[in-house]
Design a protein that fits this description.
Layout (H helix, E strand, L loop, with lengths): L1 H16 L10 E2 L17 H7 L3 E7 L4 E6 L5 H15 L5 E5 L2 H9 L5 E5 L8 H9 L3 E5 L3 H8 L4 E3 L8 E7 L5 E7 L5 E3 L4 E6 L5 E8 L2 E6 L3 H8 L3 H15 L8 E10 L4 E8 L5 E5 L3 E4 L2 E8 L4 E8 L9 E8 L2 E7 L2
Parallel strand pairs: 3-4, 3-5, 5-6, 6-13
Antiparallel strand pairs: 1-16, 2-14, 7-10, 8-9, 8-11, 11-12, 12-13, 14-19, 15-18, 15-20, 16-19, 17-18, 20-21
Helix pairs in contact: 1-3, 3-7, 3-8
């Protein structure tokens, strides 16, 4: 199945977009790996300063929180629809500026949401009844945001818990279009095609972010929910992309919705994030970055190049001339403010040698 999905993704990238770079589909949350090898710090001749001066690999560390998106994607549908979902999400969030994670079941989504690391939730055409909806609503009312996509019963149920109601639109055999008008429309302008069941969302006081092109009625609504924000998009992005034969505009819509949701998201106490940007002056340099988390750090999450053992993340990658970004998040209890220690190792002469600490 993995091989089949990979082949479909490659085919979609070639036919729908012309070209799409291969790479990790998503950042992965911590899954302790008992096989992860944590290297000792070797002491090469000449001392650390000399080693760092000759290191072909450069690592820049940036501290700070970035928008943290948890997506719940449906697990039904054809192989093509599943591959379209993966491609749209990848195009939307693989760029700089987002940390994201996907869940493919209601229970997985509820468990990850309860961990507290995420400040934006995206219900992406879910096909299961939600688990612990009251807890999700509470997080939104306390200042997080949610984007609800799709005409399915479960999407309607979740949106309904925030006071939204829906009317069935007139049948549209040839579909319709979404019309955006600048800043009120999630910062987008122009039109994009929309296919499938096209519901009419309603809620007193909610602001329209887009309207249907054939009848001028609201297609996307935005409203406050306590200190948080709710964006409702009751149509199928997946079917629209399939019928249009393109994914990039729908990835742009998904990214714009998440960015709009993130604008008002408050910083959270006790959650910390860092980004490592890795570049090399030579091609294909095997590189290890060892991140030792502060004592008491909990719920770590990190890029897929990483593995976790105890309180240490090992990133194993091949450094190239183009920048590669690695991200990790963690929680500290109480007033803790210690930061992780990061050490660089790179391959030289068949051995891994220390490039020193990354400050």
């Amino acid at each position: 199945m993995t091989t089949c999905r990979t082949a479909v993704l490659s085919l979609l990238a070639a036919t729908l977009l012309g070209a799409s770079s291969a790479g990790a589909f998503a950042l992965e949350q911590a899954a302790p790996d008992s096989a992860a090898a944590i290297l000792p710090a070797p002491q090469p001749a000449g001392g650390a300063d000399q080693t760092r001066a000759g290191a072909p690999v450069e690592v820049r560390k940036t501290a700070g929180l970035f928008p943290r998106v948890l997506l719940w994607t449906g697990k039904s549908g054809s192989v093509l629809e599943k591959a379209l979902t993966e491609l749209i999400v990848k195009q939307a969030f693989d760029e700089d500026g987002f940390y994201y994670r996907t869940a493919t079941s209601a229970a997985d989504f509820a468990d990850q949401a309860a961990g507290g690391l995420f400040n934006i939730f995206v219900i992406f055409e879910a096909d299961e009844r939600p688990v612990n909806l009251d807890a999700l609503r509470e997080q939104v009312f306390r200042g997080k945001s949610i984007v609800i996509i799709g005409p399915e019963d479960q999407s309607r149920l979740i949106a309904g818990s925030f006071g939204f109601r829906f009317e069935e639109g007139a049948p549209r055999d040839e579909g319709s279009s979404l019309v955006f008008s600048g800043e009120p429309g999630l910062g987008l302008g122009g039109t994009i095609p929309a296919s499938g069941p096209l519901l009419l969302p309603r809620k007193p006081g909610a602001a329209p972010a887009a309207v249907y092109g054939d009848n001028g009625k609201p297609a996307i609504l935005v409203d406050a929910a306590g200190s948080g924000r709710v964006i409702v998009m009751p149509f199928s992005i997946i079917r629209s992309a399939r019928d249009a034969g393109a994914t990039s505009v729908y990835s742009l819509l998904l990214r714009a919705a998440a960015q709009s949701a993130a604008q008002d998201a408050p910083e959270e106490a006790g959650i910390f994030g860092e980004e490592l940007t890795v570049t090399s002056s030579a091609d294909h340099v095997r590189t290890h970055l060892i991140v030792t988390l502060p004592q008491g750090a909990g719920s770590p999450a990190f890029s897929p190049e990483g593995t976790l053992k105890n309180d240490t993340i090992l990133f194993d990658l091949t450094a190239e001339r183009h920048p590669q970004k690695l991200r990790y998040l963690y929680k500290l209890p109480g007033e803790g403010n210690n930061r992780p220690a990061v050490e660089l190792f790179y391959e030289s002469g068949g051995n891994m040698v220390s490039g020193g600490k990354v400050e």
